[in-house]
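Batch manifest, entry 17 of 40.
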Amino acid sequence: MGIISEIARIEEECFNDAWTIVSLEEAFKHEHNHLIVVFDDGSTADDFVFQGNEQLAGYLIYSEVMGDVELLRIAVDRKKRHMGYGGKLIEKFISTLEFMDAEKVTLEVREGNSEAIRLYTIYGFEKIAVRKDYYSNPVEDAIIMQRPIAKNDDQIGWF
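Output type: structure tokens
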């Protein structure tokens, strides 16, 4: 099973509005969309560094367009939740952001998804707005959260 199929399987079990294999393939045709994955052993990889023998535990999809960064999707296999994989994905994402030109990252989350909101809050995201009735199946408000991107100036310098 390929990585797109594995992501689609996790999408299907985690989201009412799951992205299909076709929509995932379409999303990754665009150079502004990026993927971070976490494997069962806790290791992470950027984009499509996937040997095929690792077991995918979860993934994070984000978009970076002209300095705007948005976390689009994050999911962990249901059987592998509460094992730190979500935190590993967010940590890898945040460390990746430090080297971008963007100043902040935003995301939308269902108001009733307290587990995700708690995770985002732990990693410095704050509620900045609400989109009324944004989600369907069931209808629910979206909480818009944002986090500043710290710059890792120690990595920039003369050699």
